[in-house]
Each structure stands twice: as structure tokens, then as C-alpha cells.
Specification:
The structure is a single chain. With 283 residues, the chain is mainly β. It is 5% helix and 44% strand. The chain contains 2 helices and 24 strands. The longest helix is centred in the last third of the chain and has 7 residues. The chain starts with a strand and ends with a strand.
């Protein structure tokens, strides 16, 4: 089911499967311009991903038992959410763990996400609740939203030099080596992503602005996310994903006890995460 929120500036569609964005339209120009990536053949077959309960491959060990998720970035992206609350410019969805999720992730939780509009800004707030007070909840969380961006004219500007943690030879994250690109501007052509595939950055930036190469600037506000990932299909697709990560992708080939995974979050009760996109029409 697709749910819609809107104000005088933006209209946003959200699927109750995965709590995923399917459309963001600017209502304040004559074209009602689409700002979210719309799926292109032979490119990325998704538009948005809520990442939970682990980032990346999702193999781990808990109490000497091996677990593995069927897809990268966890299973919440395919889960059926219910509506907790809704009005014209705000919606809150939730998903609670069940017998099926417990088979691959032996924790009891509720995942609550709220989408709200404030003029040209789309705010997203997630709350993760530990429903088992007898043990800690281990998880990572992130967002993987594809915004429309030109592979010819798109660019991202930062307020400091871009420093990345490159992928290791086996395609996993290397936290030991940091590369300074010695520029504050990332050009979004396909050669960039053929060279780096995914750029992982420690979030030390107070200003991140996407010029999508069409008609809009997008200001990202990722609040306290410790890492950012930047990714696009290296061959085709007019989009960019700038992803806040509260956690980190796999960095070795070893199966790890979930308690020992790098940057894992641990909660006894509940934890909140917030981020937003602000859209500015250039013309």
C-alpha cells in the first residue's frame, strides 16, 4: 500500500512495505518535478532502503549460532508496516518482530519510523525499541535513499575536504586506511563510481549539499550519524545515494559475534535516529 503526505511544497509517497519512499515531488513549480529516483532498466532496481538490523552482508554469530539475512542491509526493507498515526503532512509506521524474524535475528523489537514535512524539508525520525528487557539489543541502522541526480552535471559539495575509507581488495570496508581526496566537491559521473564503487566517510561535515544537475539543490542533515556512504550504479542510472549509517558495513571475511561487530549499537530500552532532506528549486 502507498501512503501519501503533502503540504504546499512537497508531496511524498511511502510504501508500507519496508517503509520506503517511492516519490518526492516539488509542488512549487509548474512541472511537479520528481526528486526521487524512479527505477531505470538495468540500473538499481530499488528506490530506497531502510537498513536494519545490520549494514552490509549480514552474517553474524550469536550465542555460538550462525545467522544470515537473505538480502544485504537486513530484512526490515521487506517487512509489512502498520500505520500508527497519520495526518496530512505526517505519518508514523511501525513493525514489530515476530516468529519469522526471530529465526534470523533472535531479538524482540519494535521499529517505528515517522515521515513529516516542514515546507521544503522532509524529516525522518526512527525509534528502535528493545522489547526484551532481559537482554541487550544489538543492531546497526542506516538509510539508503536514491535521489535523482545527473551523471553529467551532478555534484556534492562539502564544507571540508572529502576523506574516505576505501574498500579493501575483497570489497569490504577498510577502516585502517583513510584517503584524502583533497577536494570539497565530488563529481557524480560514472567514472567516480567505477574507481571507488562505494565511498565511506566518517561524518565530520556540517554541510552536505547535492546539486542534482537538473533543477534542485538538496541539503542533507544527518545529525549524529557517525558514517556516510555515497553510492551509485557505476554503469547506468541518474541517481545518487548518500546514506547515513549508525554502524558500519562488514570489514573482514570473518563471521563475527554480533557483540563484536565494529560500531554495533547496543540498547536496553530504546534509541532514536533523525535525518532530513531539504529541497531548493534553483530556477
Amino acid at each position: 500500500m502507498i501512503e501519501t503526505i503533502k503540504n504546499n511544497y512537497l508531496e511524498v509517497n511511502i510504501s508500507t512495505i519496508g517503509a520506503l519512499l517511492t516519490s518526492i515531488k516539488d509542488l512549487n513549480n509548474n512541472n511537479n518535478e520528481e526528486l526521487l529516483y524512479q527505477i531505470e532498466e538495468n540500473s538499481w532496481p530499488f528506490q530506497d532502503v531502510q537498513i536494519f538490523p545490520l549494514i552490509g552482508k549480514g552474517e553474524y554469530i550469536y550465542k555460538n549460532k550462525k545467522y544470515e539475512f537473505p538480502l544485504r542491509h537486513g530484512f526490515i526493507r521487506n517487512s509489512s508496516f502498520e500505520i500508527k498515526d497519520k495526518n496530512e503532512d505526517k505519518i508514523t509506521l511501525f513493525f514489530t518482530s515476530n516468529e519469522e524474524t526471530y529465526k534470523i535475528y533472535p531479538f524482540l523489537f519494535t521499529f517505528i519510523i515517522t515521515f513529516s514535512l516542514n515546507e521544503y524539508t522532509l524529516n525522518i525520525k526512527t525509534k528502535i525499541i528493545n522489547n526484551d528487557k532481559s537482554k541487550d539489543l544489538y543492531f546497526a541502522y542506516g538509510s539508503h535513499t536514491g535521489l535523482k541526480a545527473s551523471s553529467k552535471n551532478g555534484k556534492i559539495s562539502f564544507d571540508k575536504d572529502i576523506k574516505i575509507n576505501p574498500l579493501s581488495k575483497d570489497g569490504l570496508i577498510s577502516l585502517e586506511n583513510e584517503e584524502n581526496l583533497k577536494t570539497k566537491e565530488l563529481i557524480l559521473n560514472k567514472e567516480t563510481f567505477k574507481k571507488y564503487d562505494t565511498l565511506v566517510l566518517r561524518n565530520r561535515y556540517s554541510s552536505i549539499i547535492l546539486d542534482n544537475g537538473f533543477n534542485h539543490l538538496v541539503k542533507y542533515n544527518f545529525f549524529d550519524a557517525p558514517y556516510l556512504a555515497i553510492w551509485s550504479n557505476m554503469n547506468k542510472g541518474e541517481f545518487i545515494c548518500v546514506e547515513p549509517w549508525w554502524g558500519i558495513s562488514n570489514y573482514t571475511n570473518e563471521l563475527l559475534n554480533i557483540k563484536d561487530i565494529n560500531e554495533i549499537n547496543v540498547i536496553k530500552n530504546e534509541k532514536e535516529f533523525s535525518y532530513s532532506f531539504s529541497f531548493i528549486y534553483k530556477n
